[in-house]
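Human: I hope this is not a bother. Would you mind checking the protein record under this note? Thank you for your patience.
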Amino acid sequence: QVQLVESGGGLVQPGGSLRLSCAASGSILTIASVAWYRQTPGKEREEVAELTRGGMPNYADIVKGRFTISRENTNNTVFLQMDSLKPEDTAVYYCNAQILAALGPARSTFRTYWGEGTQVTVSS
């Protein structure tokens, strides 16, 4: 089984910074693309940042220039550095990854996994 666990959320004042982490564990063979999404009550989950399999970052316009996505392959961790935070960035942030995982001898599965989410609140 594969698990994604986010951490680093919390309460921060407008203009402040937070760094989210997402640790992937389990029978991981390869992690392809990774991404961060966020969701507020009553709204669709939206993608804010993606790191493609080739290492190319893509950002939603609303966070471009303020958020930075990165990954550390040695311990299967993805980060989201969030700077110049605004109240409208308040949301639950979710980690997403496309992972090739081992199911047993000579068996594997390639699918998308989600973390449970971490709350980010930007307020004075």
Q: What stands out?
A: The chain has a mean pLDDT of 96.
